[in-house]
Amino acid sequence: MAAAGVFAEDDRVELLEGEVVEMTPIGSQHAGTVKWLNGWFQKHAGERVVVAVQDPLSLDPLSEPQPDLVLLRPRTDFYVRSHPTALDVYLVVEVCDTSCEHDRMVKAPLYSRAGVPELWIVDLTQKVLEAHTEPSARGYRQRRVVESGERLAPHALPDLILEVAELLEVGR
Questions:
Q1: What is the mean pLDDT of the chain?
Q2: For the chain, what percent of residues have pLDDT higher than 90?
Q3: pLDDT for 135 beyond 70
């Protein structure tokens, strides 16, 4: 739609279940947390992943969300030929302060139905990280709430151990 001129290239919208949804504005805490995650994964994962920040993820013909951060399988073309799909994903991360309910109730089921293997929701208001695994057509079967003082690693990259306190205390 941006190519057709319906939306400007920098309009903050995403396609969810056939509906064009306006995305909430990104505040400084949200933006800084995404930047911190990007740097952390770049440093610790290196060339084992492609880190995508707020880029389209093609889940099906009717849904193309723009998650805050995605760890993708490396591809020689860096996804120039096509947007990544759920089959390319190791981990999706959504950071939320005002959009938490939307991320849990709308986006998480979409990711699960598409087969995204793991979703982290970083809830800046509650100061927790929710790790969702075992996707199914009815939603993720496993949900773990991880708090400051605990550690977590993506299932596909178990050596990338994140101290959750570092993430939740960015900028403090």
A1: 90
A2: 78
A3: yes
pTM recorded for the entire structure: 0.88
Tokens of 2: 């941006």
- Please check whether residue 5 lies inside any domain of the structure: no
By the 8 A CB rule, do 62 and 42 touch? Answer: no
Read off the tokens for 152. Answer: 């977590």
The total number of structural domains that make up the chain: 1
CA distances from 149 to 93, 95, 128, 152, 168 (A): 19, 19, 10, 10, 10
If 0-12 CB within 10 Å is exposed, 13-18 middle and 19+ buried, where does residue 77 land? exposed
Residue pair 57/66 in contact by the 8 Å Cβ criterion: yes
CATH number where 52 lies: 3.90.1570.10
The gap from C-alpha 30 to its chain's centroid, in whole angstroms, comes to 13
Q: Which domain holds residue 125?
A: 28-168
Distance from C-alpha of 67 to C-alpha of 109, rounded to nearest angstrom = 13
Partners of 152 in the beta sheet?
162
Q: What is the pLDDT of residues 64-84, one digit of tens each?
A: 999 999 999 999 999 999 999
